[in-house]
Structure formats: C-alpha cells, structure tokens
Specification:
This protein has 11 helices and 13 strands. By secondary structure, it is an alpha+beta fold. It has 2 domains: 8-167, no CATH class; 176-331, Jelly Rolls (Sandwich). The strands form 3 sheets. It has a 6-stranded antiparallel sheet with strand order 7-6-9-3-12-11, with no helix packed on it. A 4-stranded antiparallel sheet has the order 1-13-4-8, with no helix packed on it. Strands 2-10-5 form a 3-stranded antiparallel sheet, with no helix packed on it. Strand 11 (305-310) and strand 12 (313-318) form a beta hairpin. Helix 2 (27-37) runs antiparallel to helix 3 (40-52) and helix 6 (84-98) packs parallel to helix 9. The longest helix has 15 residues, at 84-98.
Amino acid sequence: MAYFYQVPALVNLCSQYLQSIAREDNVCEILDLALQYDNVGLRQAACDYIDQNATIIIETDSFVHVSKLCLEYILKADTFHVDEKTILRRAIEWAKLYQGNDSLNMDEDIRFNITVKHFRNTIGNAFQYIRLGAMSFAEFSECAGSTLDAEEIKDILLFTNICSTDEFHQNRLPKKKILELKNGISSWTAHSFSRSSESMYKITVKKNLICEGIKFSKLSLSATWGNPGYGEPNLDFSVNITIEITRTGLNFSFKTAMQALSLHTIKFESPVNLKASKDPYTLVVKIEFQPNPLNITINANQAGVGSATVEHAEVEWNNQFSILHQIHFSNMSNRELKDKERKCGDERLI
C-alpha cells in the first residue's frame, strides 16, 4: 500500500521494520520484496545478512521458494560464500520445486530419484553464477548424476566449455577479511618541540576491495616532566587522531583519551572503495598532542618495518612508530557491477 500510494515516509518505515525482523528463515523473502519494489536500502541490508549467514540460509526452506530473479541475485555475488557443491545441489532442489515437483516433502529415497528436465533453462540466468569450475568432476557427478539426465549433463558441460572466463567467476570470497600487522615493538617520544607523529602504510590492491576501518595497536605510556620537580605526571590527557587514505577522499578525525586508544577499533562512517591498481594507496594515521610540559613516550606492540598480506591486498610499512594492529577489508559482492555488465551486454546484442 505504501508503494501504491507513493508515500515515501511509509515506505521507509516498512523497510526499517522488515530489516528489524530479518532472520535466516525469512530474509530471502525480504530480498524478493526488495527486488520487486526496487528498494535499494532494503535490498542491500538483506544481501548483507544473506552473505554473512550464507551457509545457514542456503539450507532453509525459503531459499528454494524464491523467485527466479531473486535466485539469480543471490548466486551472482562473489561474497555468497558457500561451497559450490552445496549451491548446485540446492539450485537443483529449486528447479524441482519450480517444475512442480515438491520434492522437499517426499521421502529421501523418492526425492533422490526425481530428475529435472532442462535444468539450465529452468534456472535461467542464475546458471552462469554457479561456479562449476570450482567443483571436481566427482562432486559434480554426485550432485547431478541422479537428478539430471545424460542430455542435460552433456548440455551443461558443452555450455561451460564455450563460455569465456569472464562469464564464470571461479571463486567465492568471504565477506570480511582482517589484515594483521606484524608484531614487534616500536616507540615514539613526544617532546615539547615535537607534538605529532605519522604512521604510513602502503596498500596495494589486486582486486576491488572496501576498507571498512582499522584497529589500533596495544599501547603503553610513560611520561616525564620537561622540568623536574613537578611530582608524578598525569597520563589522563587527550589526543587528536587524523586518518587519511590517498586518492579516496577519506579524511577521518576524532579526539579521544590517550589511554582509550589502545586496541581501539574505528569503523569509517562510509566504506572506502579501493580499486585494483599497481599504484599503492597510502594510509596515513596522524597522532597529535595538545601542548603540555610532559615528555611522553608511547610503545606499540607492532614492528616499525614490515609487510603483511590477505587475499588480493598487500600492506607495507616503514615507520619509526607503527600505531596500527589491523586493517579491516571487505570484498565487494559485485552484484550491482554484474547488473551493469549485463546491461552493456544487452546493448551489444541490439
């Protein structure tokens, strides 16, 4: 009704409510609604939930009851991190149901022997997002041998052989990944004439990624008075932190108590897109003290020099003082990217 009467405020309330009740057994239905009504916010929230709980959701009853469009949208994501054997098995179950064979309510022995006719045509565009190349022949045979007839299997294998590698993305990826920097010891002393320090990290990205945030190192403090005789130094003071990543426009600043910075996690207000490039991005973390008469030494449990890698990203640093413990990345689902690719492909066919 909210869409019918075009009441944006009511549409937003409905979207927020559906997001609040999302569970493993209903989130596929919520995604179906989001696609039907082209609600971008609800669609993204449902996709994030599905990707984060993929191994559970694929086995739910609601998964095999989604529309053909929704099935395609779920499977196309590089971040739908389920083994391909399970995906093929559940796609076949979906096709059985779509063809009117309610095999889910049958005995196991009977369900095992039901065949699916024209499987590739039945699931439509979703078929190209099943990464058959990630499966062994034995795994494919176990899933398809008893449910697809010989002609259908032959058709699938021939179709796969003539497809370009661009049409089949072989590997799915976990939604989130954490890069941990090498442990060690680095330190910096802030004197009255030197009240700020920068830690710099070169990030080389081999596949489009999102940088979501960082985690600071475990820090320990000590301080002495610039002039002796003032008694025990007070370590309860604040610092200004600025975080920048070149070529992204990120300039994130905050103020915090120095002692609260140890092992503190920062999530950026907006995810930072890092595009694959041979030229590294530079992540700069600047720490600045307000003027005071203390000489402050900060020790970090991170090596001043080193490198670390996660899949598709490498970080190198050479700092006197290295303040970061982790950099948080996430993989792009590429669902929207593939939509654009398909539109371009459709235009070429016209």
